[in-house]
C-alpha cells in the first residue's frame, strides 16, 4: 500500500487552527489558505481584501520578482500549474492512501479546477508567492504528481516552504526526490535564503525525499510535525 510522498507545508496546518508564524514573521495567510495551496481539499480562507491578480502572484524583494517557471531535470519537467491540469491530476492523485498522514479524501475534477483557480489567483498577501507545478515524466509524457513552493519574507530574507505529492502508481521510482531536488536547485537561483518543510515523524518516505533534496531535521515542531531546513549559500 503506497503512501504519499508529501511534505506538509505551512499551508498544511489543520483547518481553522491558527498557524505559528515562521520565526515571528507573518506568513500572510491563515491556516486554511495555506492548506489550499498545498493542494488539499480544505476551503480557501474567506478574505474581505482582494489584491490585483498580477500583484498577488508575485513576490517582490527589492527589484526581484519570483514566479513559477518550467524546471527541467534528468527525467522530469516541472510545468507551472494550469487549471486544465485538473482532469489528469485528479486521476493521478485519486488514491485515498495519499491522505494517510494529512486526512481528507481525494478531490474530483471540478473541485480541483476550482481549487487551482484560487491557487493561481495567488496569496491574499502580495508579499507571499504561491508557486505551483505539475510533474511531467518526459519519457511517458504523463503527469505523476505536483510540487509547491510558498515564498514569504522573513527577518533573514525570503523563506520558501516546499511540498510535493506523487501518485501511488508512480512512487518508488525516485520521482519525488528528483522533483524536490530540481525545485530546491531552482530556488537556489532566486533570492531565497532558506528552504523549509514540515514532515510527520512517522512519514519515512517524505523524510527520505527531504534528505535527498538536502534538507535536514531541526529540533523545531509545528502541529505535530518536524521542521526540516536547508540554508542556501549566498
From TrEMBL:
Keyword Lyase: no
Record-listed E.C. numbers: 2.3.-.-
GO molecular function: acyltransferase activity
Keywords assigned by UniProt, alphabetized: Acyltransferase, Transferase
Domain spans labelled N-acetyltransferase: 65-233
PROSITE patterns per the UniProt record, alphabetical: GNAT
Keyword set includes Acyltransferase: yes
The name this protein goes by in its record: GNAT family N-acetyltransferase
Lineage of the species this protein comes from: Bacteria, Bacillati, Actinomycetota, Actinomycetes, Streptosporangiales
Amino acid at each position: 500500500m503506497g503512501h504519499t510522498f508529501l511534505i506538509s507545508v505551512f499551508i498544511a496546518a489543520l483547518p481553522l487552527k491558527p498557524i505559528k508564524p515562521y520565526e515571528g514573521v507573518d506568513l500572510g495567510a491563515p491556516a486554511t489558505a495555506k492548506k489550499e495551496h498545498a493542494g488539499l481539499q480544505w476551503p480557501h480562507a474567506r478574505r474581505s481584501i482582494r489584491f490585483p491578480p498580477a500583484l498577488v502572484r508575485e513576490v517582490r524583494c527589492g527589484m526581484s520578482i519570483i514566479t513559477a517557471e518550467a524546471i527541467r531535470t534528468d527525467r522530469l519537467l516541472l510545468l507551472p500549474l494550469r487549471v486544465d491540469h485538473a482532469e489528469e491530476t485528479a486521476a493521478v492523485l485519486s488514491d485515498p492512501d495519499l491522505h494517510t498522514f494529512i486526512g481528507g479524501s481525494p478531490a474530483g475534477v471540478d473541485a480541483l479546477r476550482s481549487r487551482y483557480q484560487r491557487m493561481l489567483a495567488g496569496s491574499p498577501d502580495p508579499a507571499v508567492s504561491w508557486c505551483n507545478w505539475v510533474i511531467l515524466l518526459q519519457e511517458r509524457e504523463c503527469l505523476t504528481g505536483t510540487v509547491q513552493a510558498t515564498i514569504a519574507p522573513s527577518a533573514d530574507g525570503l523563506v520558501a516552504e516546499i511540498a510535493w505529492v506523487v501518485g501511488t502508481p508512480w512512487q518508488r521510482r525516485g520521482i519525488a526526490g528528483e522533483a524536490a531536488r530540481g525545485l530546491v536547485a531552482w530556488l537556489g537561483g532566486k533570492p531565497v535564503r532558506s528552504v523549509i518543510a514540515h514532515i510527520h515523524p512517522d512519514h519515512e518516505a517524505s523524510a527520505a525525499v527531504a534528505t535527498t533534496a538536502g534538507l535536514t531535521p531541526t529540533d523545531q515542531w509545528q502541529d505535530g510535525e518536524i521542521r526540516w531546513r536547508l540554508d542556501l549559500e549566498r
